[in-house]
Design a protein that fits this description.
Two copies of one chain form a homodimer. By secondary structure, the first copy, chain A, is α/β, with parallel strands linked by helices. The first copy, chain A, is built from eleven helices and 17 strands.
Chain lengths: ~375, ~375
C-alpha cells in the first residue's frame, strides 16, 4: 500500500462500501457473468481491480470495508480478500442496481456505528494516484459529517460522452475545495460535452459518494419511502433479506437519491484529479497499459505475443501464442473459449456481440 | 468427380506425378510442418488440396498416380487417398526440392511404362474449372509424346510479382494451342510484370510439366549428369534410396531442367485459363472463398464466427467462438495453440513471425 506522507492515519468511523457488480459487457470475452471485470487484474499489477480498490482505501478505513456483491461471486470475493473480516462481504440474492446495494450497506452501518460516514467506491475502477485520491476523500468526509451528500467530481481530461457530469456551484463555507453541487446531468452529446468542459464548471460523475448512512436513507425516504423502510427492516432483521430483496426497485443511486438531492440543495462536490478511469472498454484498458517500443500493449504474458509492426492491445489469456502482423490500433483478446478481434475505436461495439450471443442462447459464453 | 462432357476417357499412359511437400509457411498457423497445407481443406469443400488434386486428375489418369511426399507425411497421405494402390505413394527420406521428387517418379515410371507421359502437378494448388484444366492437359500430352518438355502457362489475371513467367514463342505446327516456349523468367518487379502482361506473350509458370520420363531424365543428364544417373540407379535398385538420396542436389525442376531446356528450344507451352491459384497466402485464400453479405469470408464453421461490420477472412479452427468487430480486410486464423491476426495486404509477412518463432526455438509451433 502506498504511504500517505504528511497525512494523518485512518479516518475515524469512515467505512468503505464497495459495490462489486456488473458484468463488464464491453470487456467481453475477458469479463464474464461468472468472472466479472472486478475480479480481474486489468492493469498487470498482479492485483484485481477489487483488490486494488481495497488496497487504495485501506489507509483510510483499515478493515472497515463492506463489499456488496452478488451471491455467485461471494466465494471469489472472499478468496481475493482473505484479510477482511467475515462480515465484510454482503451477498445480494439477486442484482438490484446500486441503490439497493449501497442502501443495504448504509442500513447495516446505521445500526452498527452511529457516527459512521459511508464512502461508496466502485470495485472496478482504476486510480493512478491513490495518495491524491485519499487526500480528496478526507476532504469529502468533512462535509459528509455535516450531513451533505458529497460526491467526488472528476476533473475532465476531455469532452467524454460516456459519463454523466455534475455541475459545481458556490464554494461551501468552511470546507476548502468543496462546492455545492447545482445538478447532475446525463451523458451528453459531443458538442454539449465540449461546452461543459470549456465552462470549467462540470466534473465527471464517477459514482463516488460520501454520506452519513442516516442521511442517505432519509434522503431516499423522501422520494422512495418504501425502499428506505425495507432496507432498514432488512438491517434490523437480516432473515428478511430473501423475502424483501426481490421487491426492491432496480434503480441507480444517482437517480434514486443524488439527482433529486442536488435539486434540493443537499449535495456537495469535491473536485478530484487523481487519474481516474472506469475501464469501460478495451480502448480505455489499452490507455492504461505501457506500450512496447512499437506501440503495442500487452495485458498478461508478453512472451506469448509475437508482433510485427502492430499497435493496439493484445490480451493473450487463452494459453496460445498470439501473432499480430501489420495492424494499427487493433484489439485482440484471446480466452479459452472465445476470441475477440476489433479496433480501439470500435471497442464499444463489443456489446453488440454479447447481445447477439445472448439472443442466440449462448449463455455459456457470456 | 466432374464429368468431362464431350471429352474422351482417360489418356493412355498418362501418369499424374504429385509432389506433396512444402510447409506453406505463409499459411501459418493453419499450415504446419507436421500438418502442411496440402493436407488441409482450404476451400471449404470437404476435400483437402491433395484430395482435390487427385480428384481433378482422376478422369485423365484413373489410378495412374504417384504422390511423392516426405516420409513424415506418408501415413497422412495414404489416409487421405485410400483408393490409390499401395505403391502410389513414394516417400522421400528428406526434402530435396522438386527436381529430386519429380525426377525419382520419372525414373520409376521410365522402367514401369515405356510409353508413359508424366504430368507433374503440385498437391497444394486450386483450380476452379477442372474440366477446362483437363482439356488443356490433353492438349499438352500430344506435344509431350513428341518429346517436348511441355509446360502449362497460366493466362495472367494481373501483373503478379509472386510468380515466375514463361514467354511464348511461335506456334507448334500440328498442335493446336501449343507454342514453343522462348524462355522462363524469374519473379519480376511490378513494372516488369505489367509490361509482361501488356505484351500478351507471357504466362505464369505454375510448375506444371508434361514430359516423357526419359526425355526429362535425358535433359537433366545434359546439365546434371550425376543427378540423372543416381535417380536411375535408385529406380533400378530401390534399396539404394537411403544411401543416394541425401547426396542429390537441392534444386527446383525449373532451374535444373526447364530453364536450360527452354534456352535449348526443347520446351513447349500450352496456355491455360482455368482459374488457377497457388493459395500462397491468406489473401489468396480469402479470394477463393465466398463472402457473406457483409463481405466476410469464413473457412470452416461459420456458426463459430460472430461478425459486426467486418470484412476479410476468419478461420475458426481452434474450437472457439471468434468475434470480429469493425475491421476491414482483417485476417484471423485461430488454431488450438496459435492465433494469427493480420490484414489481407500484410498477409505475406506472416513469414516473419514463423522466422522469429524458428529463431527462438519454438519449433513446436511451426
Amino acid at each position: 500500500m502506498t504511504s500517505d506522507a504528511g497525512s494523518p492515519g485512518d479516518v475515524d468511523h469512515l467505512w468503505a462500501v464497495i459495490p462489486a457488480g456488473g458484468a463488464g459487457t464491453r470487456l467481453w470475452p475477458l469479463s464474464r457473468r461468472t468472472d466479472p471485470k472486478f475480479l480481474h487484474d486489468l492493469t498487470g499489477t498482479g492485483r484485481s481491480l477489487l483488490q486494488a480498490t481495497v488496497d487504495r482505501l485501506a489507509p483510510l478505513v483499515e478493515d472497515r470495508v463492506v463489499v456488496v456483491t452478488g451471491e455467485p461471486h461471494r466465494a471469489a470475493v472472499r478468496r481475493q480478500l482473505p484479510a477482511l473480516p467475515d462480515d465484510a462481504v454482503v451477498a445480494e440474492p439477486s442484482p438490484r442496481d446500486s441503490m439497493a446495494a449501497i442502501g443495504l450497506a448504509a442500513a447495516l452501518l446505521e445500526r452498527r456505528d452511529p457516527e459512521a460516514v459511508l464512502g461508496s467506491f466502485a470495485a472496478d475502477h482504476v486510480i493512478t494516484d491513490p495518495q491524491d485520491f485519499r487526500r480528496v476523500v478526507r476532504r469529502a468526509v468533512g462535509a459528509a459529517r455535516e450531513d451533505w451528500l458529497v460526491t467526488i467530481g472528476i476533473e475532465p481530461t476531455g469532452p467524454a460522452t460516456g459519463f454523466g457530469y455534475v455541475r459545481e456551484g458556490a464554494a461551501l463555507a468552511g470546507h476548502e475545495g468543496v462546492h455545492v453541487a447545482r445538478a447532475f446531468v446525463e451523458k451528453p452529446p459531443a458538442e454539449v460535452a465540449a461546452a461543459y468542459v470549456a465552462s470549467g464548471e462540470y466534473r465527471w460523475n464517477a459514482g463516488m459518494f460520501l454520506v452519513r448512512p442516516s442521511v442517505l436513507l432519509d434522503l431516499l425516504g423522501r422520494w422512495h419511502p418504501h425502499f428506505a423502510v425495507d432496507l432498514r427492516r432488512i438491517a434490523a432483521e437480516p432473515s428478511l433479506l430473501p423475502d424483501l430483496w426481490p421487491g426492491l426497485p432496480r434503480i441507480a443511486l444517482d437517480h434514486a437519491v443524488a439527482e433529486p438531492a442536488a435539486d434540493a440543495g443537499r449535495v456537495a462536490v469535491v473536485p478530484g484529479a487523481f487519474g481516474w478511469d472506469d475501464v469501460g472498454d478495451f480502448a480505455s484498458l489499452a490507455g492504461m497499459l505501457p506500450a512496447d517500443r512499437d506501440g503495442l500493449r500487452v495485458l498478461g504474458d508478453a512472451t506469448a505475443v509475437r508482433a510485427v509492426d502492430a499497435t493496439g492491445l493484445v490480451v493473450p489469456a487463452g494459453g496460445r501464442t498470439v501473432a499480430v502482423v501489420g495492424l494499427d490500433d487493433v484489439v485482440v483478446v484471446d480466452t479459452g473459449d472465445a476470441l475477440l478481434v476489433t479496433s480501439t475505436d470500435r471497442a464499444q461495439e463489443v456489446k453488440a456481440v454479447v447481445a447477439a450471443l445472448q439472443e442466440e442462447g449462448r449463455g455459456e459464453l457470456l
